[in-house]
């Protein structure tokens, strides 16, 4: 599959490139060109509706963008934490340690800086 993303190019819009990647990896992404502009607009509209209202994003603890923007994520994550804790208490053998961190994400960054790994500083030297 071809891509228009250009890694390490500072003047690309990372947000639009990330969204474009999500768009073209959808199972419903058309294999053939759209028949007309209207068909393309309908498909993209449906994609945006799905992306914002149904797709649970891993970077924001598997809530939808609409839930996050409506400030519903804290309540949803608190409920998930309660459910997981109850399940853990009912079957202690299933979990060997702590359950998943369900604390809401405060800030989200696209392509955030990754912390350096100890011992990796002079890897290429």
Structure description:
The protein has 4 helices and no strands. The longest helix is centred in the middle third of the chain and has 18 residues, at 73-90. With 125 residues, it is mostly helical. It has a domain at 14-94. The protein has helices at residues 14-24, 37-53, 65-69, 73-90. The radius of gyration is 20 Å and the shape is extended.
How would you spell out the order of helices and strands? HHHH
Number of strands: 0
Amino- and carboxy-terminal Cα gap: 35 Å
Low-confidence stretches: none
Largest sheet: none
Share of helix among residues? Answer: 40-55%
Q: C-alpha Rg, in Å?
A: 20 Å
Shape: extended
Strand-residue fraction? under 5%
* Secondary-structure-derived class: mainly alpha
Query: If helices are DSSP runs of H or I spanning 4 or more residues, what is the number of helices?
Result: 4
Mean pLDDT: 83
Identify the notable features of this structure and list them briefly.
41% helix; 4 helices; extended; 125 residues; mainly alpha
What's the gist of this structure?
The protein is mainly alpha-helical and 125 residues long. The chain has four helices and no strands.
């Amino acid at each position: 599959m071809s891509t228009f993303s250009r890694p390490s190019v500072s003047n690309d819009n990372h947000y639009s490139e990330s969204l474009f990647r999500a768009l073209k990896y959808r199972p419903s992404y058309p294999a053939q060109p759209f028949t007309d502009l209207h068909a393309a607009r309908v498909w993209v509209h449906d994609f945006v509706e799905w992306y914002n209202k149904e797709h649970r994003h891993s970077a924001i603890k598997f809530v939808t963008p609409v839930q996050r923007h409506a400030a519903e994520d804290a309540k949803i994550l608190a409920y998930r934490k309660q459910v997981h804790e109850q399940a853990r208490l009912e079957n202690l053998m299933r979990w060997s340690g702590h359950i998943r961190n369900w604390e809401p994400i405060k800030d989200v960054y696209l392509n955030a800086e990754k912390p350096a790994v100890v011992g990796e500083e002079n890897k290429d030297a």
